[in-house]
């Protein structure tokens, strides 16, 4: 049984709106799309997407706070990957929709 939209509590509404906010920024979309394909360090993201390190770090912090990405440390390097496949599914479906003729 699905939850009625009228029954959504304030916390759920906030999380949903923040998830859409995360997907409303082109830089965050690019980062999430890259991470959907492989785990990356900040340096790899900077290199692959040709972005500044401070920009990538800021966006990763935003995505991590929303629990959309997670990190793991290997020595002195931190690697990032998707936390939750659900948002990535929405992202991929939206990309498919945008590129569909």
UniProtKB/TrEMBL annotation:
CDD domains on file: HTH_ARSR
Gene3D superfamilies named in the record: Winged helix-like DNA-binding domain superfamily/Winged helix DNA-binding domain
Protein keywords: DNA-binding, Transcription, Transcription regulation
Pfam families, per database record: HTH_5
Every HTH arsR-type domain range: 8-101
Presence of keyword Transferase: no
Record carries keyword Cytoplasm: no
GO molecular function, one term: DNA-binding transcription factor activity
PANTHER family registered for this protein in UniProt: ARSENICAL RESISTANCE OPERON REPRESSOR ARSR-RELATED (PTHR43132), HTH-TYPE TRANSCRIPTIONAL REPRESSOR CZRA (PTHR43132:SF6)
NCBIfam families the UniProt entry points to: HTH_metalloreg
Name recorded for this polypeptide: HTH-type transcriptional repressor CzrA
């Amino acid at each position: 049984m699905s939850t009625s939209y009228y029954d959504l509590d304030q916390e759920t509404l906030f999380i949903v709106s923040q998830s859409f906010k995360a997907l409303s920024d082109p830089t965050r979309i690019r980062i999430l799309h890259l991470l959907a394909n492989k785990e990356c360090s900040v340096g790899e993201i900077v290199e692959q997407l040709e972005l500044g390190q401070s920009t990538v770090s800021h966006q990763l912090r935003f995505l991590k706070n929303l629990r959309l990405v997670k990190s793991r440390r290997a020595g002195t390097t931190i690697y990032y990957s998707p936390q939750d496949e659900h948002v990535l599914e929405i992202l991929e479906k939206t990309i498919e929709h945008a590129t569909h003729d």
